[in-house]
Each structure stands twice: as structure tokens, then as C-alpha cells.
Predict the structure.
Amino acid sequence: MGNTPLDPQQTDGSEKRKDRQPENDNIRRLKAKPGHSLYALALFIAMSIGALRDFDFLPSLPPGVHELLGQPPSADMISAALLIYSFSAIILILSRMMSGSGKFSGYSQVAYLAGFYFFYHFSGAMGENFWAVFAAGMTILGLDSYHVWAWCSEEIRKEEESLAGKGRDRNDE
């Protein structure tokens, strides 16, 4: 038998690395997953910087579009919707934490928060309400990030224990 990568008689350990490759890929995937929440957080912060400037870098909508959209909701109605959304999002994240789900919803959360920024912008109440949306967003995205990080850490621990168990089983044979 030659010294080929598929030769089970190799003494350099490449056979073991080949056997563990799928698990190692899973661990790498789990280690990368919490980074997605950081991307969502960075996107939210970039959007918040634009909102803080009241989106002055974007072109104004033509008057015809404003007429088509109609009267914007009042700031009080938007604030009530933000409050309900924030509590609902936090409860959903906490329920995913309790159920052991690894689902990540950061990008959809950023989209919802962008909606609140834009509603406040169109109603002309961005200045008074920016910090409410920003605080809600940081709370929601921070909790979601923590959830994903904790879930991935636990899954990585389980994978490593599984690999260690398989390694002991092979050594016993």
C-alpha cells in the first residue's frame, strides 16, 4: 500500500483528520454563526448614524409620493407600536433561549427597527424619538446576539465532547 491520503495505515494522523472533517466543519460553522449577529449590530449602528442625521444624505421624496402615502401616523402611535414591538421581540428571543433554539433573527429585527426610524422621519419627530429606537434596537440585538453566542457555545461543547468520545472509542478498539 502506498502512502496516499486515503491509506488507513498512515501514521501521520491524516486518517483521523479525514474522519473528523465533517465534525470540524460543523464546529467552524458554529464558531462563525455569532459573527452574523455582529454584522446585524453593525448594520443597525450604521443605520442609526443616518437616522441621527435625519437621513439628510438621502434625496427627498417628491411631493406626489407624500400625497400618495398620505398623512404619517402621529409620534405617539409610532411610540406605542415601538413599545409593543420591543416587548414582543424580547419575549420571542427569551422563548427561543428557553427552548434551546439556535434561530437568529437579527437581520429581520434591523429591518423592523429601520421601519420605526423611517416612520419617525416621515412624521417629523425623529429628533425627539431617536434614542427610544436606538435603545430598543441595542437591547433587542444585544439579547439576540447573546442568545446566539450562548447557543453556539453549548453546541460547540457538545460537538467537542462527541469528538472526544469517538476518539476514546477508536483507541479502545
